[in-house]
Design brief:
mainly alpha, 16 helices, single chain, about 350 residues
Length: about 350
């Protein structure tokens, strides 16, 4: 006897991995387009190489694992990883930096752990961090903005020589705001003096300064982050606590010792603070599930960013801070997970537990 079966009328969510990834890409688009305009053809070429490498490596890993390539690639996760990785690189870096970063991000940080949803660390930040440690000179070779089609900006042929030939003119090199302050402090020059040599706060907010494509255009990055919050793709807990804790600790130490510590406003407008707070630290897979855990995670990121920027060997600490907190996510989840209905916090049924309901 065959018993007919049918699925129950369960409610299905209207969202999906593909839709979520697409919304994040859409939120990143204005800032990325503006930064491509600021840094010209070399940034466009590097952006294309990095994303293309991530997609190709993703396809290769899926084939080796015997998983459907076309269906899995359609979720846009490889594109988003490549996009965030490209946003964290010097815009005039050579092509092989984008390729190696894609290998580290997709093959090592993502598929070595089992693919999407299984990775412990944010893939894009793993790619950037490995590149920074392995190739510190190339990864800190910044340039001031050279808007597309402006006087002095590299043309199409010059950009090919820069990206694919590695011929960046020395006259175009520049220091990031964080790198400049850190170098001057190491020389004994007070922060109150060296900060006068970096772009003013308005130019830093608009993006007219040296840095990666994700470090500039703070206002457009903020707009993209608010868009994701309005669409309920992310919640406010991690971004607000990252930005708030970084600003608070920076202001406390700046007030106590302005000679050696810069202000909270400077820390927010320099580096990849807003990109990390809205687009990287909020990664579903590598951040805590509960709201309480997300608050702890965000505060930890903000404090670590400030500590690394001020006391570590590298001027920027966003990637390192997020990866360190990624490692703590399982512990945070363990101690902040909500109690299951009908059970105590240890998972025992309340009828057998001494804990009050």
């Amino acid at each position: 006897m065959t018993i007919p079966t049918s699925s129950g009328p369960f409610t299905h969510a209207s969202t999906s991995v593909q839709k979520t990834m697409f919304m994040v890409l859409l939120a990143l688009l204005p800032a990325t387009a503006f930064n491509m305009y600021l840094f010209g053809w070399p940034a466009i070429f590097l952006f294309a190489v990095t994303i293309g490498s991530c997609v190709i490596i993703e396809a290769g890993c899926l084939m080796l694992a015997g998983r459907p390539v076309k269906v899995t690639l359609a979720d846009n996760s490889a594109v988003l990883t490549g996009w965030l990785l490209a946003a964290s690189l010097p815009p005039w870096a050579p092509w092989w930096i984008g390729l190696l970063g894609a290998i580290f991000a997709i093959a090592m940080a993502k598929h070595a752990f089992g693919g999407i949803g299984q990775n412990v660390f944010n893939p894009a930040m793993v790619g950037r961090t490995v590149l920074l440690i392995s190739f510190p000179v190339v990864m800190t070779a910044w340039v001031a903005p050279h808007p597309l089609f402006s006087v002095g900006a590299p043309g199409f042929a010059d950009a090919i020589a820069i990206t694919f030939g590695g011929h960046m003119p020395d006259a175009m090199s520049s220091a990031s705001a964080l790198g400049h302050i850190k170098t001057e402090l190491s020389r004994g020059i007070p922060a109150t003096q060296s900060i006068t040599q970096v772009p003013d706060m308005m130019d830093m907010a608009l993006g007219y300064r040296a840095g990666s494509m994700g470090e500039t255009s703070i206002l457009l990055i903020l707009a993209g982050g608010l868009f994701l919050m309005a669409k309920r793709i992310i919640s406010w807990h991690i971004p607000v606590t990252v930005i708030g804790s970084l600003f608070l600790i920076a202001e406390i130490f700046h007030t106590a010792d302005p000679v050696h510590f810069t202000s909270g406003t400077f820390h927010l407008l320099s580096g990849a603070t807003f990109l990390g707070a809205f687009f990287i630290a909020t990664d579903y897979v590598t951040s805590p599930v509960s709201k309480k855990g997300q608050l702890i995670f965000g505060v930890g990121c903000g404090l670590l960013i400030w500590l690394i920027r001020n006391f570590a060997g590298y001027p920027e600490g966003v990637a390192f801070a997020i990866l360190l907190m990624n490692a703590l996510t399982p512990i945070i989840d363990r101690y902040t997970r909500p109690r299951v209905f009908g059970r105590d916090r240890k998972g025992e049924p309340l009828a057998l537990s001494k804990e009050k309901p």
